[in-house]
Amino acid sequence: LSCRKMTEMRDNGIVVFIGPDETCTSEALVASAWNLPMISYKCADIAVSDKTVYSSFARTLPPATKVSKSVAALLLANNWHCFSIVASKHPAWSMEIAHAIELQAELNNLTVNHFRIYSDYIPSKIYELQEIVDNTYRNTRVYVFVGDHIEMVDFVRCLQNRKLLSTGDYIVISIDDEIYDPNMKRNIYQGNYSDFYQKYIGNSKDKHQQNRKRYNYKDQERLQEAFQSVLRISPLFPMNPKYRKLCHQFKLYSRKDPFRVPLPYNRHIFDEIQVPIYGAYLYDALIIYARAATEVLRDGGDVSDGRLIMRHIFNRSYHSIQGFDVYIDANGDAEGNFSVIALQKDDKVNNSLHMSMQPVALFAYGARNATGTGTTLPEFRYLNPNRPIMWLKGRPPLAEPVCGFYNEKCRPKAKDWRYITGALVVILFMAIFTIILFKHYRYEQTLACLLWKVDMKDVILITSPDALYNNELRKNLVSRIKYKELQINHFQRGEKVCQQSIMVNSAGDVNKRAYTTIGLYRGNIVAIKYLHKRTVDITRNIRKELKQMREIRHENLITFVGASIDHGTVSILTSYCARGSLVDVLSNEDLKLDHMFVSSLVSDIVKGLIYLHDSDVGSHGNLRSSKILIDSRWVAQIADFGLHEFKSCQEEPSKFEKELRRSLWKAPELLRDPNCPPKGTQKGDVYSFGIVLYEIIGRKGPWGDLNMSWQDIVARVMSPEEYGIFRPSLRGIDAPEYVIQLLHSCWEEDPEDRPDIRLVRVKLKPMQAGLKPNIFDNMLAIMEKYAYNLEGIVQERTNQLSEEKKKTESLLLRMLPKSVAESLKRGERVEAECFDCVTIFFSDLVGFTELCAQSTPFEVVEMLNDLYTCCDFIISSYDVYKVETIGDAYMVVSGLPLRNGDRHAGEIASLALHLLNSISNLEIRHRPGEFIQMRIGIHSGQCVAGVVGLKMPRYCLFGDTVNTASRMESNGEALKIHISSITYGLLKKLGGYKCEERGIIKVKGKGEMRTYWLLGEDDQKRMDR
C-alpha cells in the first residue's frame, strides 16, 4: 500500500519523501531505486543504515544503537576499562543496544567481563537477576544494564541484597530510551520507586496494591541508598527555550490543511495531548532537506537527485529545533544527544535522603570528533563543573581493585624480619596476657559458681540402719546403686570376694551398721556431717576451699560431694565408707589383721597423705585413726581434711573433752603453739601418722596400755623440759625393726628431724613385700582372707541364731495356735475369722479373793503356778486351745482355729471332768489340809477369733458365746460343771455323757435359761470316739 502511494506521489512530481513512520525498509529501498531522497523522522530500523542498499535515505531519529558511543565515552571518561553487560532479550532494541555496546568496547579497547542475557522477565522471577549478580559480582565492579525500568530497579535490589552498591565500590549504568523531562513529576526521578511499577505491570488496583506492599518503606529507603550508585543515560531533553511555543504552533497548524482534524475531537487532541518528540524530528527533517536543496540549487544541481542531496546531509551537523546541534554520520543516521542522570541533592523532594534524579552531564560532538569515520566518540561534559556526580566515596569506583579481583596483581613484599620478630613478640605477649586474663576470669567464675552447693531437699535421709535393707527403699530410691553395696555378710564363694558393706560387732548385733548420718543423694549413698553452726558467710577464701575440695580426686582420699548451708543447718556431704573408720576395724576382735591387711592399710594411708601434701590443701592438721575410713573394698581413705575456714567458729558441746582426745595424735610443737593453724603442718601430719601406725600394729589405742589420763599424757608431751620426751611405749610391740626405727623418726621432738611423707613411704617399702604388684589382685587377696575369717564368724552366729530361733518358735507356739503361728512366720497376715460353732470353757477358784487376802503375793503366785501347771499338762491331751489366764480365771476353747465338727463339745466336756477330778485333790501348798475348789462353766455357739496387737500378740475370742460361757461359770457351784442347753444338746448327740437338769435360772444379761450339770462320762464311748 505504501509503495503504491509512493508511486502515485512520484507520478505527481514530488522530489522528496519525508517519513514514513515506524518501519521503513521497503519504502527506503524503493526511494533508493528511484534515486529520490527520503528523510525519516521516526524510523528505527537498523538495516537502513547500509548505504550500499539505501543510498538516498537519511533520518533525524537517532537509532537505539547510537547510545553505545555515549556509554563508551562515559566508561572511558571514568577510566572504567572493564565492565559487564546485563541485557534483556525482549524487546529487540535492548539486544541491539547490548551488541552495539559490545562492539564499541572492542573498538575502544574496553573489556567485557560478562555478557548476561535474561528473557521474559516478570517481578516474581527476580531470582534470575539475583543469580546473575551472584555469578558476576566477584570479578566486576561496573554493570551496564539494558532493559526496562522495572527490571533495572529489581537488578539494583539484587545488588543491594548483597550490600554491594552501598559500599561505593560498584556502579550501575542504565540505558533509558525515554527522554528525561524535568517538567514531569515522575516518582522514579524523585526517589520513589514503588509507584513506578504500575505502568509496567498494569492498571489493576489489586496489582498496584500488591506492588505497594512489596516495596514497603524500608525497601524504598534501601533502594534510595542503592540509587546513589546508579547512572542513567537518557536522550537529552529539548533545550530550546521556545520549544513549548513551537509545540503550540504545531497544534495550530495541525488544524489547517492538509490535516484538518474534525472539530468534535479538536479539544481532546490539541489541548490535552502533548506534542511527541517525533514532531521535533519531523521539523528537523524538513530543515535539513531545505538546507541541502538550497545548496544543490545554488550549485546548479537537481533537487530530485537523492544521492546528491544526501552528500549535502551526511557527515554534517545541524542545529536542531530542540536547541542543540545534531551530527548525521556517513550512514545518514543522527548521532543523537544523550545526558547522564544521577541522584543529586534536592531539598524540594520529600524522601529520607532529600535527593532526586537530575541531569549532571551530557555527550557533545565537536568539530574535533566529527571526522566522519563513524567510530568517533562524543565528549563527556558536566552540565555544571561545580556540581559533579555525588560519588559515595568522593571519587568514581574503580573498574578493578588495585590488586586485581583475586589479589593477583600484588606481590608480597620482601620480609623484614625485624618487624616480623617484633610483631611476633607483641603477639606472644598479648597471647600470654590474654591467657592469664582468661585463666583469672575462669578461676573467678569457678569460685563464683555454686557447683558445691547441695540442697537438702534433694537428699533422702536414711534414719535407721535397717532402712538400708528395706526392699521397698532399695527398689524405689536406690535403683542406681549396686545391690552389693547394700548387702550384709553376703560374699560370693566362687570368687572368694566378700561384699560385706556393714560391719557386725563381736556381739553379733547390728548396732554399728551405720557409723554416721547417711542419706541418698542423686542415687548415691553419702555421709552427712553436721557442723555445730547455723550459718556460714561464703567469703572468697571459703569459695577457694570448696573449689579445692571439689578438685581433689584420689582413691585414698574421701570424695567431697558438696556442702549445704540452707534451712538453718550447715553440713558437709562426702562419699560413704561402709566399713566405718579405722577405729571400728581395730576394735573388732573378730577381725584378724594379718601382715597383708596391715601393709595394705598403711600403704593406702601413706599414698593418701602424699597426694594431700602435694595438693593445694597442703596438710591435714587433724589426722587420727577416726579420720581414716574403710570402704567396702577394704581401701583406706583419709577424711575430714580441708575446709578449715568453712568449719571454723563451731559451738561444739563438750568441746574441751573432744579437743583433749584429739591432742593424743597431735605433734608437740602444735600443742605448744597457742596460734596453731587449723590446717596444721606436714611435719605434724608425719607425727600423727606415727601414732596411727602404732595404733594399727598394737591394736590397743593411740597410747597402748598406758594407765594415765588424757590430760596427763598431753601435759607430758607438751613439756619435754620437765618430763623428758614422752611417747607411746614400744616395749613388747610385735613389729619389725625398720618399723620401730620409723616410729622413732616420726616422733622426733624437732619437726625438722622428722622425715617427710615420701621418705616414710621409702622406709616402709619392706612392709609391702608380701603384697601383689597388681592393685586389684592385692585387693582380692585381702578380701579373700577376710571372707575366710568371716565364714567362721558367720557359722558361729548362724548356730546361735538357730538355737534362738527354736526358742522363739517354741515361745510363739505357746502364745498362739500352731496354724496361726505358722502363718505369722511366713509373713502372712492373719485375718479375723468367724466360726459357726465352738465350745468355750471358763473356770475360776471359789473363795479366791479371801484366799489372796490371807496369803502373801508370793504364796498366791506359787499356788496359781501349781494350778496352771497341772491344767496345762492336762489340756495337752485334748484338742483344745488355752486362750488366756487372768488371775484365777482360766479360759479354754475347742473347735478353732482348726474346725473339728461337733467334737468340740465332747473335748471340752471330757477336759472339764478330767480337770475337776485332778484339781479336787490338789492341796494348797502354804495351807496344808485345804484343797482348791474350782467351778466350771461351758457354753457352745458362734464366735469370731483373731490376732490382736503387734507386741505380745494375743489370739482373742469375741462374741456372745464368750459372755454366755462366762455367765455359766459365774452362776455355777464349787466342784461342779455348769453347762448350757446348747452344749447339753451337742453332748446328747455325741452320747456317753451323764447330765442332770438344773432347771431354769435367771442369768444376768440373758434372762431365764435352762441349764444342766455335767456329772460324768462313759470312758468306753470316749475311747470309741
Describe this structure in words.
The chain crosses the membrane at residues 419-438. The protein is built from 33 helices and 30 strands. It is an alpha+beta fold. The chain has three domains: 64-238 and 340-382, Rossmann fold (3-Layer(aba) Sandwich), CATH 3.40.50.2300; 456-785, Transferase(Phosphotransferase), domain 1 (Orthogonal Bundle); 828-1024, 2-Layer Sandwich (Alpha-Beta Plaits), CATH 3.30.70. A hairpin with a 4-residue loop joins β15 and β16 (497-498). The termini are far apart.
Keywords:
alpha+beta, Rossmann fold, Transferase(Phosphotransferase), domain 1, Alpha-Beta Plaits, 8-stranded mixed beta sheet, receptor, Nucleotide_cyclase, glycoprotein, lyase
What is the fold's blueprint, element by element?
Layout: H1 2-11, E1 17-18, H2 25-34, E2 38-40, E3 57-59, H3 67-77, E4 82-88, H4 92-107, E5 111-118, H5 126-136, E6 142-146, H6 149-161, E7 171-175, H7 198-201, H8 205-214, H9 217-226, E8 230-235, H10 243-254, H11 266-272, H12 278-298, H13 306-311, E9 316-319, E10 325-328, E11 338-345, E12 355-364, E13 379-382, H14 417-448, E14 459-462, H15 471-476, E15 491-492, E16 497-498, E17 517-521, E18 524-531, H16 540-551, E19 560-564, E20 570-575, H17 582-587, H18 595-614, E21 628-630, E22 636-638, H19 655-662, H20 668-672, H21 682-698, H22 710-718, H23 720-723, H24 737-746, H25 757-763, H26 775-815, H27 818-825, E23 833-845, H28 848-853, H29 857-875, E24 881-886, E25 889-894, H30 903-919, E26 934-948, E27 954-958, H31 960-970, E28 977-980, H32 981-990, E29 993-1003, E30 1007-1017, H33 1019-1024
Parallel strand pairs: 1-2, 2-3, 4-5, 4-6, 6-7, 7-8, 26-28
Antiparallel strand pairs: 8-11, 9-10, 11-12, 12-13, 14-17, 15-16, 17-18, 18-20, 19-20, 21-22, 23-25, 23-26, 24-25, 26-27, 28-30, 29-30
Helix pairs in contact: 3-4, 5-6, 18-21, 18-25, 21-24, 29-30, 30-32
Domain Guanylate cyclase: 839-969
GO molecular function: ATP binding; GTP binding; guanylate cyclase activity; protein kinase activity
Family: Belongs to the adenylyl cyclase class-4/guanylyl cyclase family.
